[in-house]
Design a protein that fits this description.
Oligomer: single chain
Number of helices: 0
Structural class: mainly beta
Helix content: under 10%
Distance between the termini: 66 Å
Largest sheet: 5 strands, antiparallel
CATH class of one domain: Mainly Beta
Shape: elongated
Low-confidence stretches: 1-22
Order of helices and strands: EEEEEEEEE
Strand order of the largest sheet: 8-7-6-3-9
Mean pLDDT: 79
Length: 100
């Protein structure tokens, strides 16, 4: 039987590394697990799994991550167990796109 420990987050840890720099994770960042975790439904999600941040909890202390491989699951993951593998930068608006 798998037991799940509930962790109450009271303060945010230092931000995870991004390409060697210290930056916070953002929604829609692609992240990699640095340890095995349990999905919210209890399924194991193995070390090295890559997913997408879909929500930020407790000011960045934990993140809701959607995984599709090797398991299709959502997991609430401590910030210290994630590293950014890619980040989409927001597109800049350059004026009106209306045709004359």
């Amino acid at each position: 039987m798998v037991h799940r420990i509930l962790t109450v987050v009271t303060e945010a840890p230092s931000s995870p590394a991004v390409g060697g720099e210290r930056q916070g994770l953002r929604e829609l960042d692609r992240v990699e697990l640095l340890a095995d975790v349990l999905a919210d439904e209890g399924a194991p999600v193995p070390l090295g799994s890559v997913g997408t941040v879909v929500a930020i909890w407790a000011g960045g202390a934990a993140f809701e991550v959607e995984f599709t491989r090797p398991v299709d699951a959502l997991a609430t993951v401590d910030a210290g167990l994630l590293k950014v593998v890619s980040r989409d930068e927001p597109m800049e608006r350059t004026g009106s796109s209306k045709a004359s």
